[in-house]
């Protein structure tokens, strides 16, 4: 039925969207990251742009073309992503966090390639927590955009997503089960449930491009209703 729904008119609105993984350096040749492809965030950016919005897409290292008419800001690690996101959030009406931000980064980045030490078959890596980008933006008192998060879960999907919705003080969260075959990370398709403080809506599995269109419509309806 989404095809019969008129497309939202987002002319004059500004969306900021994070997408893709972050990459956290360990030394000049190594890093920590995850399997996020960035496809969902890029599809959301394209859909918001098609609906007339001005769109800033803050992208981690991904191999995707920039959607037409979208302003893209490339970043590498979580702290760079936060800086770009905070700057974009100052100017936006809607902030969507579709990025898979690395929760931790190596405590320090070695200047030289780390050598394996002789004599030991074990090693440990000291990690420190990265800032929570979307929670920081949702916690604003001023210039707070309508703030949307994603929750990629492998179990207790709705329970974990609802916890994040309230803990991070988001206006909406999009939950998806990444353990499901052909859904979520690195897939063309996705099946999600949209949660907001007033309830939940399950959407059928579909291509990320079609899903993005529907999600932008739902976000616009919430963000710009009186
Ligand atoms: N997020 C963020 N900054 C972080 C971590 C997550 O902005 N440092 C955002 C993601 O972009 C997503 C939402 O928070 O919109 C939920 O991310 P998720 O990884 O599912 O939740 P976490 O709070 O990191 O909890 P955990 O990974 O332990 O489940
Ligand atoms: Ca996380």
Task: Give your account of this protein's structure.
By secondary structure, this protein is an alpha/beta fold. The chain is built from 5 helices and 14 strands. It has helices at 39-50, 78-89, 133-138, 157-167, 208-223; strands spanning 14-19, 24-27, 30-32, 54-59, 71-74, 94-97, 104-106, 127-129, 146-153, 172-177, 189-190, 192-196, 199-202, 206-207. The strands form 4 sheets. It has an 8-stranded mixed β-sheet, sandwiched between helices. A two-stranded antiparallel ribbon has the order 2-3. It is globular, with a radius of gyration of 18 Å. The two termini are 24 Å apart. Bound molecules: cytidine-5'-triphosphate and calcium ion. The site of cytidine-5'-triphosphate (CTP) has 16 residues, from helix 3 and strand 9. Its EC number is 4.1.1.36, 6.3.2.5. CTP binds at residues 103, 113, 131-134, 150, 164, 168. GO terms for molecular function: ligase activity.
Quick take:
This protein is α/β, with parallel strands linked by helices and 226 residues long.
Shape: globular
Low-pLDDT runs: none
The first-to-last residue Cα distance is 24 Å
Largest sheet entry:
8 strands, mixed
Oligomeric composition of the shown chains: single chain
Strand percentage, roughly? Answer: 25-35%
Mean pLDDT: 94
- Rg (CA only): 18 Å
Summarize the amount of helix as a percent range.
25-40%
State the strand order across the main sheet.
5-4-1-6-9-10-12-13
Q: What's the helix-strand series?
A: EEEHEEHEEEHEHEEEEEH
Bound small molecules, which ones?
Answer: cytidine-5'-triphosphate, calcium ion
Separate helix tally: 5
Q: Tell me how many strands there are.
A: 14
């Amino acid at each position: 039925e989404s095809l019969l729904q008129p497309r939202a008119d987002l002319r004059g609105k500004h969306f900021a969207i994070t997408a893709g993984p972050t990459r956290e350096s360990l030394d000049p040749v190594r890093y920590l990251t995850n399997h996020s492809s960035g496809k969902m965030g890029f599809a959301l950016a394209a859909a918001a742009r098609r609906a007339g919005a001005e769109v800033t897409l803050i992208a981690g290292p991904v191999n995707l073309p920039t959607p037409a008419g979208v302003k893209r800001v490339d970043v590498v690690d979580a702290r760079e992503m936060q800086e770009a996101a905070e700057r974009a959030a100052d100017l936006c009406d809607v902030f969507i966090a579709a990025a898979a931000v690395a929760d931790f980064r190596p405590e320090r980045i070695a200047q030289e390639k780390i050598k394996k030490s002789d004599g030991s078959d074990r090693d440990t890596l000291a990690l420190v927590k990265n800032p929570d980008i979307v929670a920081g933006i949702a916690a604003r008192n001023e210039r707070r955009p309508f703030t949307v998060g994603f929750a990629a879960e492998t179990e207790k999907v709705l329970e974990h997503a609802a916890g994040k919705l309230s803990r991070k003080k988001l206006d909406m969260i999009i939950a998806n089960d990444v353990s499901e075959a052909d859904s979520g990370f690195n897939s063309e398709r996705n099946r999600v449930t949209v949660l907001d403080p007033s309830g939940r809506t399950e959407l059928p599995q579909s291509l990320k491009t079609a899903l993005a269109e529907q999600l932008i419509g739902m976000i616009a309806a919430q963000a710009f209703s009186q």
